[in-house]
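fyi for ur records
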Amino acid sequence: MHLSLHVTVALAFTAPLRPRIGTNVARAGTAVLQFDAALLFDCDGVIVETEELHRLAYNKAFDLFGLTVGGSPVVWDEAYYDVLVNTVGGGKPKMRHHFKNTCAEWPQVTAAAHARPTPSTDTEGDALIDDLQDANPNPDPNPNRFAGR
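which gave:
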């Protein structure tokens, strides 16, 4: 699960890149430079709303590891995740903030496939966060839809 800031740069060339003078773009008689290419910069959530997909991926990772705090499953609802998005940047910092500040304890891992003692130090907690980040659960119901493109 790679949840850090993604910057997408897309280049679409239809011809060699060279400016040409055009008219009728803004107003008749106004000359502007036109190009046969586009350069798009995108950050997560700007062009396409991706935050809900991130929230679902976190929850899927928490479920995969069977994370519990105080005997309750770790689940980030929409309202809480909205607070995290607007106060904490980055995936690992969000998880660290949640466990250290909101819960004030590291979670227990109850899934046998990921069994380990409950972290007792920040180093052990950070190792768990690394493993959660690397779990890469895919919330996309059709993860192969772009295969071969």
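Residues 1-18, 23-27 have pLDDT under 50 and may be disordered. thats all i got for now
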